[in-house]
Design brief:
The structure holds two protein chains of two kinds. By secondary structure, chain A is of the alpha/beta class. Chain A is 37% helix and 24% strand. Chain A has a six-stranded mixed sheet with strand order 6-7-8-3-9-10, sandwiched between helices. In chain A, strands 2-1-4-5 form a four-stranded antiparallel sheet, with helices on one face. Chain B has a single domain, classed as Orthogonal Bundle (MetI-like fold). In chain B, α2 packs antiparallel against α7, α3 packs across α5 and α4 packs across α5. The chains are: A alpha/beta, B mainly alpha. Chains A and B meet through α3, β6, α4 and α6 of A and α6 and α7 of B.
Chain lengths: 263, 220
């Protein structure tokens, strides 16, 4: 993996275009916290270049599901295959798999003791073994991509929430991931900062990045997603393309959820 | 026999003869205790089978008198063929004893680092060891600077225990003067003042450290 996904996937046709190959396979996955089952027999296949939005009420297992994709949470039953590698308990080389899967968190999780550029270069230098100046070039390129290069020398606490989240996206992109996971990236933001983060995510989608986004931003889902997944009680209740999903939901639970979002 | 200030001043150089050993023992023991304590804590967190074992080790270290540990190292180990210089045994003994306490300090310091920090590091593909060194430890250090400073003074004050191993140090020097002159008030007073000075230096260093660590991360 040497080429930049931006270069090789830029200029793709319509948003509906989906490249061949499977990026993520989730087959019959179940997970329990003690006696409480958070995931019930979940099946989800994400094609390379596909944009998935996962929504659902809190406690529905949507965050747990995407956290299983980079094994921040371990599933107990079923199969998860990411970029052709099956994730099992004790899978060797988990760090190497995680480098191909970027993750953006609700709480940003920037490293507070490092400035913006060091946040971006840490894993490049330590995990990808890049020389410092090469790593800084990559970092600046991605900070420019999220339109924040002028903040490179600042510390996270000196930035607004929206800026911090854009840095977090840049930090993940520095590893040139094949898949990006977003775990409610705008839920901790003040309303006026949501747009700048969604704009960055939309641009990323336009560039052809494979994305799984847990979000309540239904405007984003409508505009960007190839498929919207609705989860409730640890299972996938309904999935459809956005037009179908919003105008013609089949399941009662989906309709109830959507009606609650509207008021 | 009243307190003789002139005598007190006169014996300062003699008491100071022990300060070198006091400093060497205190500094090396502090470094040793920090390294061992951090190691215990990392081991304790490494997996759930090791955790109870390490918890027992840490509790055992803290629950036995430091003198018992020093006597054990100095008088019992030679039976098993391990003969070490008294100074080395002293430094190792104090390091070991205080490592039990410092591991609890590090535990609290790491607990204060938000969970998401480790998750973010992992999600970037950093190995466990890199996560600890570059993400967790620097943030932990900021949380533990104050208690670490308190323990550095505590270790400094524990150096006279090495008298039982016949390691000459500052309180020992003061005691030598006392037994030669049969005057106890002045040597003990001088030794106390000198320990106080060293403790104040240690506290100042810790304050600098705190300010230095604070500089890199402005308050919210």
């Amino acid at each position: 993996m040497t080429s930049n996904p931006t270069d090789e996937q830029a200029g793709m046709g319509s948003i509906q275009t989906v490249r061949g190959g499977t990026a993520v396979s989730i087959e019959n996955v179940s997970k329990w916290y003690g006696n409480f089952q958070v995931l019930r027999d979940v099946n989800l296949h994400v094609a390379t270049g596909e944009r998935i939005v996962v929504c659902g009420p809190s406690g529905s297992g949507k965050s747990t599901l995407i956290r299983c994709v980079n094994q921040l949470e371990k599933h107990q039953r079923g199969r998860i295959v990411v970029n052709g590698t099956e994730l099992r308990p004790g899978t060797k080389g988990l760090p190497a798999i995680r480098r191909e899967v970027g993750m953006v968190f609700q709480q940003f999780n920037l490293f507070p003791h490092l400035n913006v550029i060091d946040n971006c270069t840490l894993a490049l230098v330590r995990a990808r073994k890049l020389a410092r100046n090469a790593a800084e070039a990559v970092a600046m390129e991605n900070l420019t991509r999220v339109r924040i290069p002028e903040q490179a020398k600042k510390f996270p606490a000196q930035l607004s929430g929206g800026q911090q989240q854009r840095v977090a996206i840049a930090r993940a992109l520095c590893m040139k991931p094949k898949i990006m996971l977003f775990d409610e990236p705008t839920s901790a933001l003040d309303p006026e900062m949501i747009k700048e983060v969604l704009d960055v995510m939309t641009r990323l989608a336009d560039e052809g990045m494979t994305m799984i986004c847990v979000t309540h931003e239904m405007g984003f889902a409508r505009e960007v997603a190839d498929r919207v997944i609705f989860m409730d009680g640890g299972e996938i209740v309904e999935q459809a393309n956005p037009a179908e999903f919003f105008s013609n939901p089949v399941q009662v639970r989906t309709r109830q959820f959507l009606s609650q979002l509207l008021h | 026999m009243s307190f003789d200030f002139a005598f007190a001043l006169k014996i300062v150089p003699r008491v100071l003869e022990g300060i070198g050993n006091t400093l060497v023992v205190a500094i090396l023991s502090f470094m040793g205790a920090s390294a061992l304590g951090f190691l215990w804590e990392i081991a304790r967190r490494s997996n759930r089978h090791v955790r109870p074992v390490m918890q027992f080790v840490v509790d055992a270290i803290r629950s036995t008198p430091v003198l018992a540990q020093l006597y054990f190292l100095f008088y019992v180990l030679p039976y098993y063929g391990v003969v070490l210089p008294a100074l080395v045994v002293g430094v190792f003994g104090l390091s070991f004893y205080y490592s039990g306490y410092l591991s609890e300090v590090f535990k609290a310091g790491i607990d204060l680092v938000p969970r998401g920090q480790g998750e973010a590091a992992q999600s970037l593909g950093l190995s466990r060891i890199h996560t600890v060194i570059f993400v967790i430890a620097p943030q932990m250090l900021r949380n533990v600077a104050a208690p670490l400073g308190a323990y550095s003074v505590s270790i400094l004050k524990a150096t006279p225990y090495l008298a039982v191993l016949a390691v000459p140090e500052m309180l020992g020097s003061a005691f030598d003067v006392a037994s030669e002159t049969y005057r106890y008030a002045e040597p003990m007073f001088v030794a106390g003042i000198l320990f106080l000075c060293l403790a104040l230096i240690a506290v100042t260093l810790v304050n600098w450290l705190e300010r230095y660590l604070g500089v890199t991360t402005p308050p919210h």
